[in-house]
Amino acid sequence: MNSKLVFVYFPSWWEYSCKNHVADIKVLAPLFHNNGIKLVDARTPLKSFKVEEIFPLSGGSHYTKEANLAIGRYLRDRLAK
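Structure (tokenized):
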């Protein structure tokens, strides 16, 4: 079987709402890179969103419908390559 492992990084509310919070991806990216695991950053399609457009509730653990759609489209296009 010809398969590839791909890790998709989904950002947390803390990354967008706390200025001093270090994004987990800063720690994870080198680990994946050094082990040959492809990393797709789901923050990319959210760059133009405000925090309340990504998370419906303060401290939210779920994304809004619009954020989910943006991430879904991005992953569909990115993973197809």
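The helical segments are 13-17, 24-34, 51-54, 65-80. The longest strand covers residues 6-9.
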